Amino acid sequence: MPEIPHVALLVETSREYARGLLRGVARYQQEYGPWSIYFEPHGLDDPPPDWLSDWKGHGILARINSRETAEKILATGIPAVDVRGALPDLSIPFIGVDNRPVAQLGYEHLRNLGLRSFAFCGTPRGENPNQDNRCDWFVELVEQGGQACDVWLGAQSKQHAATWEEQQQDMARWLRNLPKPVGIMTCHDDRGQQLLDACRRANLSVPDEVAVISVDNDPYLCNICTPPLSSIDVNPSRIGFAAAELLGRMMQGEQPERQVTTLGPPRGIAARRSTEMLAIDDEDVAAALRYIREHATEGIRASQVVSRAAKAPSTLERRFKKTLGRTIKAEITRVKLSRARLLLTETEYPIATIAERAGFAEAKYFCEVFRKHHNATATEYRRRFRDE
């Protein structure tokens, strides 16, 4: 009988992203194990455990956040996979988030609110490459859209790190100087919570003056914010599963083809009150957009939306497209597909039921539209992105 692999998980449990990674590892282990798991709850910045130096296991999966931890893992000579990506020069393969579609999803969500001013709130450059990339992609998307993007990254070095109060005051000053209304994407939920606090200090209304979206979708942190924080779900379970899969191959002697592997796109947006606003001057367009978002899943048609215009219904379609860059019909389809994606990933409903609840008259037509927009069938999408 072959020996059961002994695998050490050096992953914290304090945030939803890391817990999602562990769920993915657990799913892989249940399907392809068994593994004997060495796991002790700890924090991201905790030193490596003392037992690691003499450990005689077969594989390590870790959120490596310090050079000390990296060196201790490398010294074991045991196959290892990093799921943090804080040290880009490591000779340990990394699996993580593809930050380009994450930034695109955040930008499009804010732009769809009718906003034309944007900013990014992140962490000091060099602190984490993933957060740097997230910022860079967001800025590029904003600039491609013809706008400038303000950026706040905080203190640039740990030697001169500001206190919490100093940092909050600096962030509040930055917020006061931004054009309003403004849509801000933050690098993660921790920064999003901090930004909302700074908005209160600056006497700025969220979301009316400042709409905020963050990344990681930690439900506990997002829902204790005032107001609750919209956030992008990057599907960490999928990343944990892929990391465990790679580690399994490495423990069998396979060498990874790439040092860095990014998985995407993200699962979607958990929209909460921090982005519940519409920054549209045209009252008819704003009313049409609000009506679509409230009733798209009821199977409404573009003609119904046009007929509700208080002034000049004959020009509403043209004004709508000029304001949002797409037709009324396209917006109805976009909202319906957004609902369908959520149902695919969070329910057991069959495809026909999902089509009906998303506002499509026929399941066959829904499947055709879904495949056209996502380059995958609804069933494939569910299998790929669902957090089982």
TrEMBL record:
Domain of life according to the entry: Bacteria
HTH araC/xylS-type domain location: 286-384
The keyword Cell wall biogenesis/degradation is assigned to this record: no
Record GO terms (molecular function): DNA-binding transcription factor activity; transcription cis-regulatory region binding
Keyword vocabulary terms for this entry: DNA-binding, Transcription, Transcription regulation
UniProt entry tagged with the keyword Transcription regulation: yes
InterPro entries assigned to the protein according to its UniProt record, in alphabetical order: Homeodomain-like_sf, HTH_AraC, HTH_AraC-typ_CS, LacI/GalR-like_sensor, Peripla_BP_I, XylR_PBP1
PANTHER family linked: LACI-RELATED TRANSCRIPTIONAL REPRESSOR, XYLOSE OPERON REGULATORY PROTEIN
Protein name (database record): Xylose operon regulatory protein
Species annotation: Aeoliella mucimassa
